[in-house]
Design a protein that fits this description.
The chain is of the alpha+beta class. The protein contains six helices and eleven strands. It has a single domain, classed as Alpha-Beta Complex (Replication Fork Single-Stranded DNA Binding Protein), CATH 3.90.198. The termini are far apart.
């Protein structure tokens, strides 16, 4: 064996544990993001009311959306800004998406906690709704997205009722807002430099009816009664 091939690999349980810990930390940032196709109805419950504002780069790579918190927020050079990609102002909430869907294995999913990212047009509407509802936290809405030019988080919101968050927790739902300091924390700088992107919206449209999501929506006629 040549000298160049000696001692190529790290050894030991400490190394394995460090890699395992890194994987677990990465998993904390992998959460579902709420979106709607045109002419789609969904029901959601807001878990908080004060949006966390972020300057965010939203790009497509290999047919999938990727989201990068702009490093300029922290007075650091941002590789994506250097590459002439402009960030957007986004306000984030935590919600429960009451939609039911089936994965490829046929397993049903419902009442999942997701990240709800609203840009300025949607935020203006949510600010008005917050005043009307005396806060969004705990409020359940029927949401409809009219067309492809409307926000992917929905254009029409009809209030159903307001829940106590303690009640949602008692039903076994993940009703605590996300830890945004973890979820929205900047990625490693190398990821900003290495991402091979196209402009968000110029690749595969996340809000189109051909979004390619690996799930099967379950059609359901929900009335205004809450069934968890």
């Amino acid at each position: 064996m040549s000298e160049k091939r000696k001692n190529l690999f790290d050894r030991g349980y400490k190394v394995a544990k460090a890699k395992d810990d890194a994987i677990e930390e990465k998993k904390k940032t992998l959460v579902g993001r709420f979106f709607m196709k045109p002419e789609e109805n969904k029901r959601i419950i807001f878990l908080d009311d004060s949006p966390v504002m972020v300057e965010e780069h939203q790009v497509w790579e290999d047919g999938r959306p990727k989201f990068f918190t702009c490093l300029k927020m922290f007075d650091e050079p941002c590789p994506l800004c250097k590459r002439k990609h402009k960030p957007s102002s986004v306000g984030y909430y935590s919600i429960i998406d009451r939609s039911e869907w089936k994965d490829k294995q046929g397993k049903s999913h419902k009442n999942e906690r997701k990240l709800f990212g609203a840009k300025m047009k949607a935020l203006r509407k949510l600010r008005r709704l917050s005043k009307e509802c005396n806060g969004l936290d705990g409020v359940e809405f029927k949401v409809y997205r009219d067309g492809s030019d409307d926000p992917t988080t929905g254009s029409d919101f009809t209030q159903i009722k307001k829940h106590e968050l303690e009640y949602l927790l008692s039903k076994g739902l993940e009703a605590e807002p996300f830890d945004y300091d973890i979820i929205l924390a900047p990625k490693d700088e190398s990821e900003y430099e290495e991402v091979d992107f196209v402009e968000y919206g110029k690749g595969k449209n996340l809000g189109s009816k051909k979004s390619g999501k690996d799930e099967e929506e379950v059609e359901e006629d929900q009335d205004d009664e809450v069934d968890f």
